[in-house]
Structures are given as structure tokens and as C-alpha cells.
Amino acid sequence: MLNSQNAHLTTQNTMDTTAQPHSKSHFGLRDKIGYMFGDLGNCFILGLVNTFLMLYYTNVMGIPGQIVGVLFLVSRIVDAFADVTVGRLCDRSELTASGRFSPWIRRMKYPFCLAAILLFLPVAQHLPYAAKTVYIFVSYILFGIFLSAINIPYGSMAAAISSNPDDRVALSTFRSIGSAIGGSTTGFMIPILMYTTVHGKKVVSGMHFFWIAIACGSIAFVAYILTTKLTTERVRVEKKEAVPVKQLVKGLAANRALVILVIVDIFIVINQILAGTNLTYLFNDYFHNDKAMSVALLFNYGTVIALAPFASMLTKRFGKKEASVGALLFSSVMYLLMFFMHVTNPWLYLVLLFIATLGAGLFNLMIWAFITDVIDYHQFTTGLREDGTVYGVNSFARKLGQAGAGAIGGFLLSLIGYQSSTSGIAQTAAVESRIYTMANLVPAICLAVSAVILLVGYPLNKARTKEMGAALKKINS
Q1: Closest residue by Cα to residue 369 from 377, 359, 379
Q2: The dihedral formed by the CA atoms of 151, 153, 154 and 159, expressed in degrees to the nearest 10
Q3: How far apart are CA 378 and CA 206, in angstroms?
Q4: Separation of alpha carbons 134 and 311, rounded Å
Q5: What digits encode the pLDDT tens for the residues 34-80?
Q6: Please, are residues 461 and 319 in contact by the beta-carbon 8 Å criterion?
Q7: CA–CA separation, 153 vs 290, rounded Å?
């Protein structure tokens, strides 16, 4: 089957695209570091927004959880379509001296960083309730659109930096390291900085969040500059003619690797968003320990850094698919164990959490290399090189997962009886117990489902990925 696909690829690739490897410099540490800074910048902002924005809306703005859930659902649906649109625009954009994707990052870092800061504008919390609701909908939807305009080009860039599979695993690993640095720093520092004392009691401070947002936005801005300065796009494909939408959609639907990864990504992202958000409620309302919250959020990302040196070794020995399935199942079992143990000591829970996040952390190291393989598989099966569009479709799925996570998180809070308040009222013992259940059972289910789908449906095991890479090397060299 692979040989027949390769024959189709050779004919179609000759008709539609011309690959022009860029010989300005060889792939090396400069590219890895530069690409790392891109997700470091992303996660200084997303670590703030994805983990703490719901807490900010409920405890500072006084917005009920179900309203926040609707906001996240609507916003993510809009973002999902924005991802596909931006991906298509990237593929159709002019191939400049610096590449096709880097110019997007250079331009869009300005509105994106500003939009992140405006989410936490202090004056908004004093508006009438109706005005506050309008404000959070408008500002958050704009934030999501600007995120698409910078994140889709950034993610698509990996396939253009190098065509070598080992180089792409290295880029995925360094991207995950950047994500872990940004996420762990915000996860550790924000719980320390976000509180103020009112009448002798700690409450979440809107003004503190505003200054935190300015700091995160500024760091991200510098990181994006470093990304565009240090990376080089070497795989440069000139588009000879626009691909008809019908043909493009048909090819995407036939890309089994993409379809399965899309489904898996929905569950993985739901888990990631809910895990981060639920941890803030778990340590704020169940354990009542903000110091442990900082450590927990640090563990959630720090395991990625701990596993980074072993990622390439595991990939070469077992393959991305095989290693990831085992890792996801391991994490699922650990979360299920924690659910049944019903731990009451926050420090014991942290030890178990660190072990549980090892498996999910390994998959997070692999995910971006999965996407570059899927981009290659699209060219392999259709002859069309559509990096931005394929990445945009995958990101579409991730946004659907984020939409589901935001909606599920908000509605679950209401379902378990969580009381939104700007004065930090105590939750009942029953609600606290339900928060613990939510924080452990949801990831156990999401990770198990992801592992089974990946095992049964994903076509690119170690051997097939190697064969595909060899075929594409002949075409794109």
C-alpha cells in the first residue's frame, strides 16, 4: 500500500508543489533554542489564562461558573474556525526571504500580548454585571483570534525548519521544554502573587492579576522576538496553483493519521485544561494550601523537563505511537488510584501527582512530533504540502477540546454546588469532596480513552513512519 501511495505522491507533488530546501545554514542548537522560546512565550500567557482565568472570573469578577462555561464554549468554537482560516492564509501567503511563517509571528505578537493584558483590566471588575459580561465575552473572543494568528504559524513552522525526523523530535522536545518553563513558572509564581489580605483573610486580588498579566505579556513579547531571530525555515515549498477546497477537504478527510490525532487531541486537551483548572480549586478549596498549589502546578509542567533527556531515546527504541500509548495508560491508572485513595494530606497528594503526570508529560513531549508526521502523511497520501492547513485542522480539534473543557469545567462547578464569590466564602464539605473527585476521575477517564484510540486507530507506528520519511526525503530533497 505504501508503494502505491508513494507513486501517487511523486506524480501529484510534481504537479502542485516544488520543494526548495533552504541552504543558508544547517539545523542546530540555534533552531532548537529559538523554537523553544516560541512556546515559552505562548505558555507564559496561556499558563496565566488557561489555569487562572476561570478563578479570576468567578472570584474577582463575580461571574457565575455556568456563564464562564458558556463563554469558553462560544469562544473556543470561534477560535477553532479561526485556526483553520489562519492556517489556510499561511499556506497561501507569500514565501519571503525569512520564510512563510516567521513574518506572521513578527506581526501578530503586538495585538496578542496586548489582548492578554486586557483580559485582566482592573476597571472591568467595577462595571455593572451586564457590562462585565459583555466585556469578558468581547475581550476573550478577541484574545482567542489573536492567539490563532500567532500560534498556527508557530506550530506550522516546525515542519519547515527541517525535514529530518530526528530534528523534528528535537524541536518537539525543545518546544515542550519551553512550554514547561513557561507553564511551571506561572503555575508556581502566580498562586504566590495573586492573593491580597482583606480583614485578615486571603482573597484573590484583581490588581495583582493585572500586574501579573503585564509581566507575562512582556516576557512573551521578548520570547517571540527571539523565535523569529534564531530559527530558519529550510523546507520552502512554492505553491504553483491554489488547491480547490473540495480537493483539500477530501484529502484531509482521507488522512487517517490526522483524523485519529484530532480525536485524541480533543480528549488530551480536555484533560490538560481541566487538570490545570481543577488543581487551583482542589488546593484552594479542598486542601486550603496555596503553597502546595504552587508546587502542584510546578509538577504539572516540571515532569516534562525531567523527561526531556529521555524523549529521543524512547522514540528511537519504541516509536512515538508505542511509547505514548504506554505512557497514557500509566497516568490513567495513577489518577484512578488517587481517586480511590481520597488523599487528605496535600504533600502526599503531591508525590502521587508527580508520578501520575510522568505519563502525560511524556506524551506532551511527543505531540508536536506527531503533528509533523501527520503533515508529512498528508503529503505522502495526497501529494499536497499544506503545513498550515493541516496544523490548523489539528488546532481546530484542540480548540474544540478547550471549548469542551471550559464548558465542562464551568458546568461541573455549578453541578457540584460550587459557590462563586468575590469574598472567598468557604465551600461545604460535600462540595470539597466533589472537587477532589472531579480533579482525579476526569483525567483518569480522558487519558485512558486517548490511549485506546491511539493504539487502535493511529496508522503511523515506528516502522511505517520510517518508511514514509525515506520516501518523502527523495521527493523533497
Answers
A1: 377
A2: 140
A3: 46
A4: 45
A5: 999 999 999 999 999 988 998 899 889 989 888 988 888 888 788 87
A6: yes
A7: 37
Q: Could you tell me which of 359, 363, 389, 362 has the C-alpha nearest to residue 374?
A: 389
DSSP 286: I
Instruction: List Cα–Cα distances, 237 to 125, 158, 160, 234, 372, in angstroms.
Output: 49, 14, 9, 9, 15
Q: Burial-class residue 188 by CB neighbours within 10 Å (0-12, 13-18, 19+).
A: buried
Q: Is the pLDDT assigned to residue 89 strictly greater than 80?
A: yes
374: which residues sit within 8 A by CB, 6+ positions away?
255, 257, 258, 261, 390, 394, 460
Dihedral sign computed on CA atoms, order 23, 172, 452, 266? negative
**Rounded-to-integer distance, Cα 140 and Cα 119, Å:** 7
Closest CA to 320 of 366, 256, 388: 366
Contacts of 111 (CB under 8 A, 6+ apart): 146, 149
Residue type, 454: L
The grid cell for 361 is: 508529560
Interatomic CA distance for residues 22 and 347, integer angstroms: 51
Cα–Cα distance between 154 and 396 in angstroms, integer? 15
Cell numbers 483570534 correspond to 145
The CA distance from 132 to 56, in Å, is: 13
DSSP assignment of 175-243 equals: HHHHHHHHHHHHHHHHHHHSEEEETTEEEE-HHHHHHHHHHHHHHHHHHHHHHHHH----EEEEE-SPP
Task: Using the structure block, give the residue that is written with the C-alpha cell 520564510.
Answer: 99
Count of residues in the chain: 477
- Give Cα 95 distance to the centre of its chain: 27
Q: Report d(CA 275, CA 445) in Å as an integer.
A: 12
Task: Confirm if 51 and 281 have CB atoms less than 8 A apart.
Answer: no
The whole-angstrom separation of Cα 362 and Cα 365 is 5
320-341 helix and 290-318 helix, angle to the nearest 10 degrees: 150
Q: Tell me the torsion sign for CA atoms 157, 163, 167, 169.
A: positive
> Which pLDDT band, with edges at 50, 70 and 90, does 423 fall under?
low
Under DSSP, is residue 443 helix (H, G, I), strand (E, B) or coil?
A: helix
HSE-CB of 400 using CA atoms within 13 angstroms: 14
Per-residue model confidence as pLDDT tens digits over 290-328: 778 777 766 656 676 677 777 777 777 888 888 889 989
